[in-house]
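ESCALATION

Customer reports they have been waiting on this structure for their group meeting. Please prioritize. Original submission:
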Amino acid sequence: PGEWGADITVGSAQRFGVPLGYGGPHAGFLATSQSFARKMPGRIIGLSIDANGKPAYRMAMQTREQHIRRDKATSNICTAQALLANIAALYGMYHGPQGLAAIAQHCHTSATLLRAGLLELGCSSDDAPYFDTIRVSPPPGKSVDEVLAAGAQQGLNFRKLDERHLTLATDETTSLADVEAAWRAFNGGAAPAFSADELLASASAPPLGPLGRSSEYMSHPIFNSHQSEHQLLRYIFKLMSRDLSMVHCMIPLGSCTMKLNATSEMMPITWPKINGIHPFAPAEQVTGYKAMIDSLEQMLCEITGFPGMSLQPNSGASGEYAGLRAIRAYQAAQGQAERNVCLIPVSAHGTNPASAAMCGMRIVPVTCDAEGNVDMADLSAKAEKHKETLSALMITYPSTHGVFESTIVEICDLVHAHGGQVYMDGANMNAQVGLCGPGYFGADVCHLNLHKTFCIPHGGGGPGIGPIGVAEHLKPFLPDHPVVPMGGESSFGAVAAAPWGSASILPISWMYCAMMGSAGLKKATQVAILNANYMAARLGGHYKVLFTGTSGMCAHEFILDLREFKSSAGITEADVAKRLADYNFHAPTMSWPVAGTIMVEPTESEDKAELDRFVDALISIRAEIAEVEQGLQPREGNVLKMAPHTVSVCMGEKWDRPYSRSKAAYPMAGLRQEKFWPTTSRVNDTYGDRNLVCSCPPMEIFVEAEDSLEATA
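Update from on-call: job pushed to the front of the queue and completed.
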């Protein structure tokens, strides 16, 4: 499209090795000309350098864009389908440009052969250029519906375009047997008088003309180096060895709920009857899927206390958008379309104001008190001020400060009394399941993060599912779909391309709920809260725990205040986060919702030994900070400022740092036996932002540069 003069191109990478999955998950893509690069939503990888000048890739520009830009953010129009993007990338690497060209040629030749046979059978088709999809009219005397039924008898689904036309598509799996089965469907079930071999030599397609491509593509060495399965497997494992994941340690990212993704939960997504179904397959072919979806909806309704549930949204942000659109549609139906004010606490997730802005709402911030709770006086004043135009309040419970706000019922009642609806952000649902629920204490709509609370893997940023539960009065306004009837009779429309969004990963959450049962789900919530309070209690003697509830306890996560160390030792939250990598740990959430802090969420998946290992690491780091405070280590060039420490740094011939190599690499007992080495030193963020679009030089340059650095280190 860029060669045709297009400025922006959108599409799906599903055809690059990703199963149909009854609609998802799939990686969509958006490509633009250079002039629009810095206006793109989502995450973009840029080329930077680390502290030793070594090349390093990083997320550029929009790493924390939602929380920084809030209502001006654009990145939450989508979920970052990182896992699916990697599948598509590996598919491209394995096949390479020549392999992809061969696949494309097979698709096109199959469509051409299919069309030629249908023309022989009396079908009509225009001469417009096509790639893999043809449009035809049935032979004389046959209707579109008759051909559809005949196709089903042959094990094939066709698309009914209208009462006179069907469309048929081919792909790399299309065989001559498939083509001949399609011919039989158009020929009353009988084999035609000709064979595929007879037509293959003479079949021709309309010329592509200016649409054809002759320019080079995928010339980077990475797409021309792994064309054997063994080599690709080695490459995948090479990359995997560089990722610190939950197979190595707990990932205590606050508000992310990084919990166990059990193997038993994951197994169904490998089954062809789960991942091999088209999203628009006839209803009679997907009765099993329907039973599973209905069952999951019922379980989620009971957990949340809502009578209505939509599984269509593909992410939490998409769920926010769908929920707010349902609220606005309901208010418009009540003759209150002028209600457009959205009250949002200043502690809210950055996606909240971004979603409200996308729904055309006017955002009015609500302050928090010194304990991190919603300021009831400010909320009351602003609800009263905007009572004629108040649409909704967006609130997270427990709060983003990790506290169960005791006034949550009062908050809901106050908003309702002023004509508004309560939207609850379900990001912290892992502290509610089995204990309480948004529908039980007054919320009107809430999105869930199935990739948090209900065990779908995060996938490095996706796939996710963000279903919304709604109160009875909002059920008529749930998302629908233009192809598959669903949703409410007064729906505002669809929020995903497929009726049930990323349907093929719904079995993960269904398996989790079914195997845990009500008692197991409740205990998981209790253990998550217990784990967080245990860690906060142990760390409270070394760091300031920023917020607790009226009982002196936190919810399922807690915030450690590191701001005092900036003045006492010149140490920032980033220094602590980088140093944790030397202890074999992923950092907690940094500087959100309060700048200069870290937020820790252990989840119920971690045992006491792992909790203690992380706590011990933070206590050890506190002692390292004390060494700087006491003047035993310099404010610059100390072990925290120089973290993380790579193999090349620790094994280099030159060492002029004021601490030992052993202290750098093995700060705690046990690390010598099981060490995960960081692959890069501290990355230069400013450099990365200046090099927004990765220039992707050949990998050999990186190898040569790394060898040179190691030789001189």
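Sent to customer with the following note: The first strand starts at residue 8 and ends at 12.
Escalation resolved.
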